[in-house]
Amino acid sequence: MPVTNSHAAPLTRGGLAGKQRSVAAAMPAAAASRPVPRKVKVKTKDLAVFTRQFGVMLGSGLPLIQAVEILAEQQQNKAFGKALSAIRSSVEGGSTLSGACRQHASIFDALYTNMLEAGETGGVLEGVLQRLAVHLEKSVKLRAAVKSALIYPVSVLVIALGVVIMLLWKVVPIFANLFAGLDATLPLPTRFVIALSHFVASYIWLVGLVAVGGVVGLQRYYATKGGRRVLDGILLKLPVLGMLLRKIAVARFSRTLSTLITSGVPMLESLDITARTSGNAVVEDAINVVRREVEAGHDVADPMRRSGVFPHLTVQMVAVGEQTGALDSMLGKVADFYEDEVDVAVADLLALMEPAIIVFLGTVVGGVVISMYLPLFSLISKLSG
Question: How far apart are CA 97 and CA 107, in angstroms?
Fold first, then answer.
């Protein structure tokens, strides 16, 4: 996007000299025609740190090109550093910062580049970078909340499954040989565990194959549009976890839309970007419906209410924001509220899961062990009698 002369003053502070702007006007499609480089993986936390530092440097009066060069040199992620060096070269060649970042879509998504473009157009690039840094930091916090809510129970369940398989594969056969030598009548739980042990010992390769196949199949199914909608819908309907995921989705929606509107991105484009970055197919579909309604001339709150996805509080706050002309501020308050709610919900979920996991482990592992000792208790009672 060529930079007009009306924004020369703020953009010169950011490092785009008049000569570079004239080159950009003469060759607007040059940067866009460059091939997109290979995908570079950059953690959201690293991107947030980069954005925060970038905004501080521009706020201190450092030219844009020099700031990008310094940040490129100090990156521990060498691929990210090379991408930043390529961006610096593109800007030196006359490209806008947003246009140069669009050539690295694996690092800078649509939200990031559109906000950069709005900042360049309005001459408020420094402020946009600060808002982007806050947004990314909040996103990191939300992802950490999801991980803390899911990793602990999943890890415990995997460990418990591994322990049970080892008991069935190595320990139970020892007891089974002992009981066969005693020629005793075994209780039903013991016979069931021994039969399960024989199956695991004979077909452990099949068990592993089924487990791996199940995980791969689930991932491929989730990669399809239909599968993503089905699985995301199921997740949102789960008793406790579903409410947590809904709060996370609402917090992400509110924070993203508020950040985009505050930065001057048009409403329809903001809704489109928010839908694509929602992280849940059901929420994405609901936002796309809202976007179509807004495009047809309706307000934002009514289609949100009809979708049944967004909580009543969120809809009411959006309606008030539209009536008062402070939609971005209201969405920011909603995001703050639900981010706090997520923290409380995660703490409650972990507190609820701990006793449930202990009961599960005691039932499964303890059940296997007790079933092996039942015949010994019976034999001991007969010998003592």
Answer: 14
Cβ pair 67, 57 in contact under 8 A: yes
Please report the pLDDT score of residue 38 as a whole number.
54
Dist. CA 357–CA 152, nearest whole Å = 10
Q: What percent of the chain has pLDDT over 90?
A: 24
- Residue-level pLDDT at 8: 35
Co-location of 66 and 192 in the same domain: no
CB 193 within 8 A of CB 365: no
Q: Which residues contact 238 (CB under 8 A, 6 or more apart)?
A: 245
- CA 72 to CA 68: how far, in whole Å? 6
Closest CA to 266 of 279, 275, 257, 254: 257
56, 91, 108 — which closes off a domain?
A: 108
171-191 residue pLDDT tens: 888 888 888 777 667 888 888
For the chain, how big is the Rg over CA atoms in Å?
A: 29
In terms of domains, do 192 and 330 share one? Answer: yes
Residue 114 lies in a domain: no
The tokens of 215 are what? 């995980």
Residue 129 domain-assigned (yes or no): no
- In order of 18, 49, 110, 259, 318, the CA distances from 14 in angstroms are 12, 19, 21, 21, 35
Looking at the fold, whether 195 and 71 belong to one and the same domain comes out as no
Q: Is residue 89 located within the same domain as residue 146?
A: no
Residue ranges making up the domain that contains 42: 5-108
pTM across the whole model: 0.68
What confidence tens digit (pLDDT) does each residue in 276-319 have?
Answer: 888 889 999 999 999 999 999 889 999 999 988 898 989 999 99
Q: Are residues 66 and 21 in the same domain?
A: yes
- Residue 212's CB is within 10 A of a number of other CB atoms, namely 10
The CATH number covering residue 72 comes to 1.20.81
Would you say how long the chain is, in residues? 385
**CATH code for the domain in which residue 269 is found:** 1.20.81.30
What letter does residue 238 receive in the DSSP assignment?
Answer: S
Q: Has residue 82 got a pLDDT over 50?
A: yes
- Within 167-295, residue ranges assigned H as helices are 172-182, 188-223, 225-237, 241-262, 267-276, 281-295
